[in-house]
Amino acid sequence: MAFKVAVLLSVFMVTYHLAPLVFTSEIQKPYPISLLIYNSLAIQRNLTFNTEIAYRGILLGAMRKIQSANNDFKFTIEEDPNYGPFLVSVNGVAGNNAEHTYWELLVKLQNGTIIRPDVGVGCYIPNPHDTVILKFSKW
Ligand SMILES: *[C@@H]1O[C@H](CO)[C@@H](O)[C@H](O)[C@H]1NC(C)=O
Ligand SMILES: *[C@@H]1O[C@H](CO)[C@@H](O)[C@H](O)[C@H]1NC(C)=O
Predict the structure, then answer these.
(1) Which of 64, 81, 93, 134 has the fewest CB within 10 Å, making it most exposed?
(2) Which parts of the chain span the membrane according to its record (predicted)?
(3) Cα–Cα distance between 31 and 55 in angstroms, integer?
(4) pLDDT for residue 12
């Protein structure tokens, strides 16, 4: 009897898309993301780093984790009083107003679509399997 109820209940939950609620602890595990460093203004190879990000963790946290685990990834940020932290330099290459250069934040989603988040590294919350692209560009 209890078994039947359980089966009926799980059929019900799957049918009504409630199943994920049951496996909440599964969903809240850390998930993988990649970070791609791309200098579009120089002939330079791209760098890619993989890490696990805490469930709903911010990009800045993942970047700090990568920085502490890899000698070939270093970055600096500055705090904007209104918009929070923004990326200033990556591996010693800094954006420069006179030269109209900056580090652009792009994200390649798991399905291949590339988006430009309207928030900075301190606010962006990566999705599982995002490839976050830090692209040195001109404006
Ligand atoms: C670096 O990555 C960018 C963005 O994915 C890509 O367009 C570019 O071709 C790559 N450059 C190299 C040298 O692989
Ligand atoms: C990829 O996913 C995003 C967000 O869910 C969606 O907006 C976009 O249209 C999708 N792209 C493709 C090619 O399916």
Answers:
(1) 81
(2) none
(3) 7
(4) 47
Ligand nearest, relative to CA of residue 111: 2
CATH number at residue 57: 2.170.130.30
For residue 47, the ligand closest to its alpha carbon is: 1
46 Cβ inside 6 Å of ligand 1? yes
Distance (angstroms) between ligand 2 centre and the Cα of 133 equals: 17
**Whether the model pTM is above 0.85:** no
What are the φ and ψ backbone dihedral angles of 12, each rounded to 5 degrees? -60, -45
Query: Which atom of ligand 2 approaches the CA of 111 most closely?
Result: 1
Query: For the chain, which ranges sit under pLDDT 50?
Result: 5, 7-9, 11-15
pLDDT of residue 84: 86
Q: Which domain holds residue 82?
A: 29-138
Regarding beta strands 131-138 and 101-108, do their DSSP bridges make them parallel or antiparallel, or are they unpaired? antiparallel
SS3 state of residue 77: strand
In a domain? residue 120: yes
Q: Does 2 map to a domain? A: no
Whether residue 17 is contained in a domain is answered as: no
